Predict the 3D structure of the following.
Amino acid sequence: MEQQGDDMETVGGVDAGLHGRVAAREAVVGVVGLGYVGLPLALTFAGKGLAALGVDVDPEKPRALAAGKSYIKHVPADAIAGAVRAGRLSATSDFAALRGCDAVVICVPTPLTPEREPDLSFVTRTGEAIAPHLRAGQLVVLESTTWPGTTDEVLRPILERGSGLEAGRDFFLAFSPERENPGSGVQTHTIPKVVGGLTPRCLEAALALYGAAFERVVPVSSTRVAETTKLLENIFRSVNIALVNELKMLCDRMGMDVWEVIEAASTKPFGFMPFQPGPGLGGHCIPIDPFYLTWKARQFEFQTRFIELAGEINTAMPHYVVQRTMEALNDRGLALKGARILVLGIAYKRDVDDMRESPAIRLIELLQARGAQVVYHDPFVPRVPRMRHHSLDMVSVPLTDEALAGSDAVLIATDHSEVDYARVVERSALVVDTRNACRGVKAGREKIVKA
């Protein structure tokens, strides 16, 4: 690495300025994108004594953080307020502020297009916004899940073209896949952090940064390996969830309870890992990320058949649930058209307020398309927010006895733990349970249909 003044002096191959400021807890870490990944990451750095500067194009987020408020359920407001008071957390919508940072971490969405191809527009726009303010000696890390080669082939040229600097010589570039498990109670800093650098010195710089905040940092040989690691993690879950979803449909046809089968199989102390079926896949990762690798594989004339089959099965699950609901109503002399359906839970998983890619949205759309009158209750999602792929305008209804008794069917799409499912069964005429949420309910089992 060529020397470029004090910022580019090296000690053991690592930038002395960055390494020294991280070690002294004087470094400033910019985090671009203050959503479900970026905000916990910024708090993690702040909690370890580093200053975190959050940047988000939505001005409401910096305003909320400045006031010590949280807009994400599992991120406590007191943690935000404490970090702000200590001067360890601040936020802005001005990308120019990143020039004062020692490291910039990108945590922006990577969705799919309507054609199910990668949409890197958030990454490219962020790179273009960062580049004019990039200076020598800075570290840039991409954490957004993406296809192998994105950091080098897409982000690197944008940063170099816009800054006039060269990655690996004038500034450091790395990839470190985000690993968050909202609602689990697991602290971000305890989750091992995989890191891959563009060059060995880039890797050393990234290891210095993350090593100051995470209990364990796992270096890999390249940004591509780090990018593929994240995809494998989510593909593993997608394929296994598809497997149990397919078994759920088969067990239903054969008159068996798939959850009983899974519970029995789980008693094996080796060679088996339980996965749970559901109404489809949700969240920003598992329904989307596998298709990033599928898209990239086609460039190498390779068909990722397992990934694509898993996607087909999981995408079809809402249709299966609607069919089971229609059959359950029919058995009671009712039609789906005109039926009053109360959907319990609209978040993509238990005890979170995250609705990204939630299968409950598709369930509601399918039910409404077939003439059902649908309302929903979710203690964490009071209103369906505007999102890219739906136009629902709904508000959560109170879970009263009247609401339960007035419904022809209650469809459990998300099994939030604070819901009293014994009461739900007692007050309802029919409960369609896609999550086995009613497994502990003793009375009224005849009302429960598993789907």
Notes: The chain has 14 helices and 15 strands. The first helix runs from residue 16 to 23. The first strand starts at residue 10 and ends at 11. The chain has two domains: 6-221, 235-450.
